[in-house]
Amino acid sequence: MPTPDATSTSAQSGRLEVRGIAAAQASSGPANSFNGRLRDECLNIHLFWSRTHTKVTIGDWKEEYDHDRAHSSVSRHRE
Question: How many domains does the chain have?
Fold first, then answer.
């Protein structure tokens, strides 16, 4: 297992690029809910190989999230 110093050196030389996505603290409940679902249902289960793969995967997840699910706010408007 590489040491943190070895990983940093490899990353700086361009051989390895590892990026983590820190959890952001949003100030609104709906934003926190969306961010948590995105992280749990998409980001934590996929390994992204390129920016294109990332955009397509998140786009597919967002399409499903926006159009194929019943949301509580939609339910309230239909009553």
Answer: 1
